[in-house]
Amino acid sequence: MSQFCIYLKMPTYLRQWLIHRHGGCEPISLVRGSAESDFLKKSTVKLPDGIIPPTQQEGEVAIAIPYYKSHDPRTYNYLSDIGKNCLLQMLKNDFKVDLWEYLHDIDRCGSELNALIYQFMELRGIKEDGTTSDSIKKIYQRKKNCFRTIQKRKNFKNHSDFK
């Protein structure tokens, strides 16, 4: 495993989920061939002159830069702030997909949403800190509202096609 890392600041629930998803320890080793791993391969560059290599700060997660023969992390180990933001957005999207895949079928069965959120958190290694379950619930509600809007548009379009 590479000792060269990217450090990303992210919400606590996302950090806990990511660490749990990738084996439970830091630095996180991304799955080779995953979108995130490929992104790091294409986006890491040589450390610019005058830039001090970053160290891990409070609230940041360490992500190991994957080794590729053609893209050695000993040479290519710097990710710009824009690149870090792109990687963070990719990880947030992965979280939303995981949340949606777990909840959307069960939620329609009439189960208590809060209990389902806590079950999701338990299975994904996310600890409650007083606001975590509310944050996750809001993320799910936004995805659900988006899904319903798309469904309504499809139904309206299909209905108007028959006229």
Structural account:
This protein is mostly helical and 163 residues long. The protein has five helices and five strands; from the N terminus they run E-H-E-H-E-E-E-H-H-H. Helix 2 runs antiparallel to helix 3, helix 3 packs across helix 4 (113-123) and helix 3 crosses helix 5. The protein is elongated.
Throw out a few tags for this protein:
5 helices, 163 residues, elongated, mainly alpha
Cα end-to-end separation: 61 Å
- How is the largest sheet built, in terms of strand order? 1-4-2
Overall geometric form: elongated
Mean pLDDT: 89
Number of helices: 5
Specify the biggest β-sheet. 3 strands, mixed
Please provide the ordered H/E string of secondary-structure elements: EHEHEEEHHH
Number of strands: 5
Helical proportion, percent range: 40-55%
Computed Rg: 19 Å
Strand content: 5-15%
Q: Give the class from helix and strand content and strand pairing.
A: mainly alpha
Low-pLDDT runs: none
Explain the layout of strands and helices.
Elements: E1 5-9, H1 12-21, E2 28-29, H2 35-43, E3 45-46, E4 60-64, E5 76-78, H3 81-107, H4 113-123, H5 132-161
Parallel strand pairs: 2-4
Antiparallel strand pairs: 1-4, 3-5
Short recap of the structure:
The protein is mainly alpha-helical and 163 residues long. It is built from five helices and five strands; from the N terminus they run E-H-E-H-E-E-E-H-H-H. Helix 2 (35-43) packs antiparallel against helix 3 (81-107), helix 3 crosses helix 4 (113-123) and helix 3 packs across helix 5 (132-161).
